[in-house]
Design a protein that fits this description.
The complex is a heterodimer of chains A (212) and B (192). Chain A is 81% helix and 0% strand. Chain A is mainly alpha-helical and 212 residues long. The N and C termini of chain A lie far apart (70 Å). The chains are: A mainly alpha (212), B mainly alpha (192).
């Protein structure tokens, strides 16, 4: 929002100043976006150390995969990679998109309950990242002819995300706290040991049945 | 073009997950209800569904050989229908109990700071393979009858073996003393 205000002032003063300031400020908001993602990760997964560890591991794996793709793709398709600012932002947005996807996958997989505030944060920022990634990918492919669409889509997605945040964060609504009855490591270990023995039993009985 | 497809695919994945998030209810999962369900699932699997006699009775052909040799056609058809229904019920029950166990395992693992992400991922895939094998087995029993089972059960057993292997690795920290201690606890606490 600060970046938007600065850009509006720059445009009023001198359009050239606006064009010079656009990408540095855009990069600033992009880096801030990573802070938002970390904040969401901390708020949602803090009471669940196991899930948090899993999310960080998966996020790092995804980051490594994207990095490999970014390093390998220009070597395979050198003519398609002039390395513009748009492509750079697209690559960084894609990492954010994957982080959001991984975070949501962990939330779904472990059945982690989230409150209205966090849900709105994820929805709003996720939609903004999604729209940015899609439009940047198409812009990088189609070239300047896509600018007319981009000029409409980008501000709309930004305003839409802010509107979602405004509604979701209007009042404080904490994440549901985990059920204390389930947080005993002894219960986990007991269940895990029994799970192990039951799976062993399944294997033995089914092998027996397979031979029958 | 390949790059465009790649980035649009990432966008599509994100869109799908955001859509699921929007439709998700706020119902907390993995609470004490899941613990009760898991305990019931364990006892059902151990006492009701997995005993060797039960599995053998459903999937071996001895009964069918006997009925085929002595009973008229109508009785044979009735027998086959009933046995197919029993086999399908058995697969459904095993699948439901395994699903319940998996749900509780995830509900517990999320709190566990010593969780090993790589093993957890393998365990998730093994559980998924086991569930897939159950579904396949069900479909094949439905189409081919209860005695098409041996080969299908074999596939299911392989998936179960993979799940077992990963589970054993993930639980390597458990030793006999801990298990003995847990087993000696009162039934209300850790009788899983």
């Amino acid at each position: 929002m600060i970046a938007s205000v600065v850009l509006v002032i720059a445009l009023a003063i001198d359009p050239k100043l606006y064009h010079e300031s656009y990408w540095p400020l855009q990069f600033g908001t992009l880096v801030t976006g990573y802070g938002i993602l970390l904040e969401i990760l901390n708020h949602v997964l803090a009471p669940y150390p196991g899930a948090e560890k899993f999310a960080r591991f998966s996020g790092l794996m995804a980051f490594a995969a994207i990095l490999c793709f970014a390093l390998i793709a220009p070597r395979i398709f050198p003519q398609q990679s002039p390395g513009t600012v748009i492509e750079f932002e697209r690559d960084l947005r894609s990492i954010q998109a994957i982080f959001v996807f991984v975070l949501l996958a962990v939330i779904f997989y472990y059945g982690i309950p989230i409150g209205r505030n966090m849900k709105g944060m994820i929805m709003g920022y996720g939609l903004y990242v999604l729209t940015s990634l899609m439009s940047l990918a198409v812009r990088a492919y189609a070239g300047a002819s896509f600018d007319r669409v981009w000029d409409v889509v980008q501000p709309l997605s930004y305003d839409g995300s802010l509107a979602i945040w405004l509604v979701a964060l209007w009042s404080y609504c904490p994440n549901p706290s985990p059920d204390p009855n389930i947080s005993l490591e002894e219960d986990y270990e007991a269940l895990a040991s029994k799970t192990k023995s039951v799976i062993g039993a399944i294997r033995n009985y089914l092998r027996k049945a397979a031979r029958a | 073009m390949i790059q465009l497809i790649f980035f649009l695919s990432i966008g599509a994945l994100l869109f799908a997950s955001l859509f699921l998030l929007a439709r998700r209810s706020a119902r907390p999962e993995g609470g004490s209800g899941a613990l009760v369900e898991a305990r019931q699932a364990l006892s059902t699997l151990q006492a009701g569904l997995l005993p060797a006699d039960m599995v053998k009775r459903i999937f071996t052909q001895e009964d069918w050989e006997y009925v085929r040799s002595v009973a008229p056609q109508k009785v044979r058809e009735l027998f086959m229908e009933e046995r197919k229904r029993v086999a399908l019920l058995w697969v459904d029950q095993v699948r439901a109990q395994i699903r319940s166990l998996r749900r509780f395992h995830r509900g517990s693992a999320r709190f566990y700071a010593r969780l090993n992400p790589r093993l957890e991922m393998e365990l998730a895939m093994s559980f998924a393979a086991l569930m897939g094998a159950c579904s396949l087995l069900r479909a094949l029993v439905y189409v081919g009858g209860p005695y098409a089972a041996p080969r299908m059960v074999g596939a299911m057993a392989n998936a179960a073996a993979r799940a077992c292997k990963v589970s054993e690795e993930s639980l390597s920290f458990l030793n006999a003393a801990q298990l003995g201690m847990l087993n000696s606890r009162p039934a209300g606490r850790a009788a899983l």
